[in-house]
Amino acid sequence: MVLYEKESYEIRGAVFDVYKELGCGHKESVYQKALLKSLIDRKLKAEREKRLDVFFKKEKVGTYVPDFLVNNEIIMEVKAKPEIKKQDVEQFWHYLTSTNYKLGFLVNFGKAGGVQIVRRVYDLSRNKNAFSSASNSASFRVIHGYVALMSLLVVGAAGLAVSISLILFGVGSTRSSFVIEQSGQSKNIANACAEEALKKIRNSLAYTGNGNLTLGQGTCSYAVSAGSGQARTITVSATAGTAPRTITRKIQISISQITPRINVSSWQEIP
What we know:
By secondary structure, the protein is of the alpha+beta class. It contains 6 helices and 12 strands. The strands form 3 sheets. Strands 1-4-5-6-7 form a 5-stranded mixed sheet, with helices on both faces. The protein has a 5-stranded antiparallel sheet with strand order 8-9-10-11-12, with helices on one face.
């Protein structure tokens, strides 16, 4: 079970709506105002700069003011920087752990080529090592495009570990770095297309058909087909880069039911 699954889905959608219209290059204050409207449009309660208590050994020692508090459950920080650094993620993690909140989103609209989203969960009852392994290896997750229901995304663990290691520690040649970067962008663009297809299904439960999406230097296409009952299959193909140096990745999403809520039974890469 994904913590605050519906809220997380709507938050990502709100972020993507802002980025699709504004792109990168604006001040943080511009993105904050736009995101506030986008969150409210999605029926979320969004409070700007609400003061939260900071605790040390259960004793209040100060206050923390996040950019947003969503539904009185989720904290959000908004950046407009060329790149999210490890230090940004660690600082955000400390903000989260020093309050009584379990979920936070760190969003960066400043990177050329796509919005970056970091989702952090702090809930010892669910996973007491939720962050320790990621923190120790500095393997935070950076998202360059749409990302839907990320916890359901099935990727090769070994391949992901190698990619993160190469990116963070500079191992490999320039060509390898390019391939890794383009591969990551292609995957995120594919997720963007999948999110668009899911939105089509949510807006029209009987929807089947095809569509295309362009994000930065990448393109993708999706096809939604119907199975028995409420079953749906979404097939996505995404390409990043410019010819002749392009990388294509494909994903397939299986949906077992669409009412009263969409239930994704699998989300995996395909050849």
